[in-house]
Amino acid sequence: MKKVFNPFIYMLMLLLGISIANTFAQTAEWKGTIDKSVKRSQAFKQDFSRKSPEGAPNVIWILLDDVGYGATSAFGGLINTPNLDSLANQGLRFTNFHTAGICSPTRAALLTGRNHHSVGMGLFPHYYLSADFPGYNGYIQPQKGTIAEVLRENGYSTYQLGKWHLTPDAENTDLGPFDRWPSGKGFDHNFGFLGGATDQYKPDLVEDNQHVTPDGRHLNELLTDKAIGYLKRQQKGAPNKPFFLYYATGAGHAPHQVDKVWSDKYKGKFDGGWDAYREQVFANQKKLGVIPSNAKLPERNNYIKAWKDVPADEKKLYARFMEVYAGFLEQTDHEIGRLFQYLESSGQLQNTAVFVIIGDNGGSKEGLEYGVTTKSIRFGADNITREEYKKFVLGEYDKIGTKEVATVANYPLGWAQATNTPFKFWKSDANAEGATHNPLIVYYPKGISEKGGVRNQYAHLIDLFPTVTELAGVKQPETIRGIKQDPLHGTSLAYALQDKNAPARHTQQYYTIFGNRAIYKDGWKAAAAHRPNSLDLFTYADEAKTVIENDPDKDVWELYHISDDFNELNNLAAKHPEKLKELKALFDAEAVKYNIYPLIDIEYAAQRFKEQQARQQQQAKK
After folding, report:
1. Where in this chain does the record put each Sulfatase N-terminal domain (predicted)?
2. Which of 370, 260, 230 is nearest to 326 (CA)?
3. Best exposed site among 47, 85, 198, 423 by fewest CB in 10 Å?
């Protein structure tokens, strides 16, 4: 048995005059000898430092928020992102990459390398968007260790910048506990915001384990300055130590806010509307090779008017919403560019592996029909008629994108489908590719010889954790800080970096958000849109609310052969009922395995929201 140093026994032996030479000679941790006299003792230096594998790369993860497949110019969009373009043109574009379909689930899956329900993040860590079931409690447990924890244990410095959105409401004050703050999940330092959205000029800002006061500058600028500051300090103090930088912007999530110098660059560029935008982007995507050459553009969604039928005053309003969103994203790209300029000037870029996830989900539908400025009808919060709301928003034209808008300020629904080109639907509709199919850029000069390559292998967020550990030469540990770790669910993409023709190794994946659900297996996908959908609950005071039966067993399943029909235009459920039955059974099996059931939907969340508001009002009266 290994001997353990016990200071009480040691002092007792000294007092009794018992010889202690060689007493600890057999310990694994320390191999010296101890005697009363230091001259007769033999020292042995123990190395408590964490060392990284020789040549291990720096790692940067960049995660944009609420950005669809067809938004950025890097994937054919009409929003200029020259720095993302440069990374893609010198690296690889992954065209078949997938997210969880909404904020917190995506981030939980990304950082843990595990499916989001299995880590308790079926939805969000907020009271009204969580539930007291294993898959939805919002508390990531220590046996689901993060990539930051693993890399830090292997000699990396670890930094988190920007949006976190993984801390339960009960733990988000400066009193802690900090187990589910970035510092409790493996990051040496963090700077950003804990929630899902924040004002870009007055962010709810935290640094390390406390809230701090912002200085009035735009959040994107603050994040990049802080990131560069972290890396400069590391270059000075430990130039040979690799780093992991997780840079998660608030852009382009609501509120859409940016200085006019950026939004005015797009004056008039969206006057042609969302229909023209979709057609132009679709053509660009074919030229880039990021969609199949024989692809077809889906029809406009039934919720959205044809641009030609939109009244002139509304066209002006809607175009301005998109000008602001575009300026917001271009400014974000500029700040990302500043970070890479520093890396290049400091000589660190060649040995840095960069993964840029363009969107934690597709474009956001939360702006609804007319867009949102300073107030919204979410969950029926405002007792207002359709005409009253439209008149209100039309009068807010000059406030769009400014410091005056609310944290829910968002563009209209038509732009959500446009920026999601070539897909149907949008954020949180996890049954559809429009929610879960996002671009990935991988840039690694030292590890990728092909420049501007395209990769079509099926992949998911949970694959990036094992990809990074493989590139870094690091093994997934059995324990972290003494806690046994659950297995990862992802598959490393390192194989695809070198071989564009290699068959995909990630062959099966489920998706579930607000009861909308799907299962992918070997090129086939079964999917069901759950009702009520979030759009069904956004109503005006003068309109009768349709009663929708909330029964998952009555949801209608569809079937698609994704390998041949990547944007889900041909429903094959009637043609292949046995395949649909097989996939539905597989989904049920996955649901049991990963704690997906019961399905927590938007109606449940709306009820919890109202209950929370009622409690807060009662407390305010006391």
Report:
1. 57-474
2. 260
3. 47
Beta-sheet strand order (sheet of 516-521): 508-513, 516-521, 524-528, 557-561
22-25-29-32 Cα dihedral, nearest 10 degrees: 70
pLDDT of residue 26: 33
Report which of 377, 613, 428, 612 is spatially closest to residue 532, judged by C-alpha positions.
428
CA–CA gap between residue 571 and residue 576 (Å, rounded): 10
Q: In the structure, what pLDDT confidence band is assigned to residue 21 with cuts at 50, 70 and 90?
A: very low
Task: Find out whether 370 and 412 touch, Cβ atoms under 8 Å.
Answer: yes
Residue 381's pLDDT is what?
53
Tell me the angle at which helices 312-345 and 82-90 cross, rounded to the nearest 10 degrees.
50
Q: What percent of the chain has pLDDT over 70?
A: 93
Number of other CB atoms surrounding residue 595 within 10 Å? 19
Cβ pair 357, 64 in contact under 8 A: yes
> What's the CA gap between 178 and 166, in Å, rounded?
11
Amino acid in position 170: A
Residue 22 has pLDDT above 80, yes or no: no
| pLDDT surpasses 80 at 534 | no
Reference 117, options 555, 513, 551; nearest CA is 513
Rounded distance between C-alpha atoms, residue 462 and residue 166, angstroms:
16
Give the count of beta carbons closer than 10 Å to the beta carbon of residue 318.
27
Q: What is the mean pLDDT of residues 245-270?
A: 98
The reported pLDDT for the residue numbered 608 is: 85
Would you report the helix, strand and coil content of the chain in percent, each value rounded to 5?
Answer: 35, 15, 50
Q: What structural domains does the chain harbor?
A: 1-44 (no CATH), 58-443+467-491+507-606 (3.40.720.10)
Q: For residues 68 and 77, give the distance between their C-alpha atoms in angstroms, rounded to a whole number.
A: 9
Q: Cβ distance 145 to 186 under 8 Å?
A: yes
Instruction: Check pLDDT > 60 for residue 313.
Output: yes
The b/e string for 63-92 (b: 16+ C-beta within 10 A; e otherwise) is bbbbbbbbbbbbbbbbbbbebbbbbbebbb
Average pLDDT score over residue span 416-439: 97
| Pairwise CA distance, residues 58 & 151, whole Å | 10
Instruction: Give the SS3 label for residue 510.
Output: strand
Query: pTM here?
Result: 0.93
State the pLDDT at residue 426.
95
